Fold this protein.
Amino acid sequence: MAARSPISLLATIALASIATTIPTVHCFQPVAITRSSRTKQDDSIRHLSPNANDGVDNDGGTNNRRQFLSKVTTAAAVAAPFLLSASANAGIDVSGLRVEGGAPSNGVVAAQLKGLSSTDSGTAAARVREIQTGTVSAAERQRAAGVTAAQRPVLSEEELGSAAVYARVTRPPSINAIGLKINSRYAGAVDGLPVQFDFPTDWLQLDRANNGIQYVDQRNGNKLYVLKAPLPPDTNLATVPKSFFDDSIFDANGDVIRFGTVVGGHKTSKSTMIQSDPNAAYLHRRLQLNYETVSGNGVQTIERRGLADAYEIDGAAYMMFASANAVKFEKKDGAERATIDMIVDSFRIGQ
């Protein structure tokens, strides 16, 4: 005799338990009750239900039914985990699912159901986990764009043109808290030139692996960069059009865009020459940039403002670029605007 499975044994025990509780059922022909036949009806009921206490109620039968239902429920609860585990991995039959002439999504639903495996990986919970881990949001795609420089094609100077790239760190910096330790001072070197600036102590450094300087305020997305852009031939920092700066910083080949920031419209709205004497060591210019960043879902744009503080050294503009949300930036006495001003005011290079 073949061995019986545990599930089969449990089902047999449950059915045996149920069978012992089934009461004897007497079939009878219903009799219409009228006021004149009340006594006969009562007698009939007593005959059919000998355990009844009166001619209407049958408490004994009710108790039997309650016990029967209680045991059925208990047996079902005991057997359910085993019965469900045996069928949980079964594939879903979608042969009867209507595709033609029904809702347009039926074909998609059918395809998804057919894709469910008959193994544990095809259970509903596993499928939900698969969808959750396999779904990549627009924000994640945007962050994935910020890969390391080694994964980006190396562009020649001709290909870069006037695109702004990181001024490469050539000496490990010293970073020390200053004043009340709310701010820190960065002192190092880029492209062999000494560089110094102040920034909030709690800002996080990004793109260290790319050998560049970028910091972010994680609370609001405010950022700073130290960039370098070759000036066009036959121009200098004083004569180059102000549009050069936003075109350079947001050039598709530049490092601001190549390492993850998605920018829509942009323009340079203000320009001020701080040092225009051609006999000075370095020309110095301050500019305000207005631009839009594209949100993670790819449909909403966020207005931003930035200040670029630029020095001309060896035919290139070395810039500190610091940005903030447009609304916060326009509040002249606001904390975020004060932070941006502090960063660009403290920027020194080649000195």
Remarks:
- The first strand starts at residue 165 and ends at 166.
- Residues 329 and 337 are 5 Å apart (CA to CA).
- The radius of gyration is 40 Å.
